[in-house]
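Worked example 3 (structure in, sequence out).
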């Protein structure tokens, strides 16, 4: 049994994410690479006490970057777009 707090890593504050939140009531979060949609839905519902309608996950591969002579790779990550049910609201930054 995995901990609910290990499924969700951090919220993503991007321009696309803020537009989705305002127009379609969707939230962007970074999740653990091995988490599935059911894990994400259960974690969001139990931690934040909101009802989740739908979860979409996206796995992005890290880009290869050069720093002088050396080559490195940024880490892979997994994002989740969470659609909240009508009437539900979730704000990560209260009062801002």
């Amino acid at each position: 049994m995995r901990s609910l707090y290990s499924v969700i890593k951090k919220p993503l504050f991007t321009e696309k994410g803020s537009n989705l939140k305002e127009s379609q009531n969707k939230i962007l979060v970074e999740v653990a690479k091995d988490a599935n949609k059911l894990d994400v839905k259960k974690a969001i519902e139990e931690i934040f006490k909101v009802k989740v309608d739908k979860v979409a996950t996206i796995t992005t591969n890290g880009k290869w970057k050069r720093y002088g002579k050396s080559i490195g790779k940024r880490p892979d990550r997994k994002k989740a777009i969470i659609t909240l049910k009508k009437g539900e609201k979730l704000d990560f930054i209260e009062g801002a």
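Notes: The helical segments are 4-7, 15-24, 37-48. The two ends are 35 Å apart (CA to CA).
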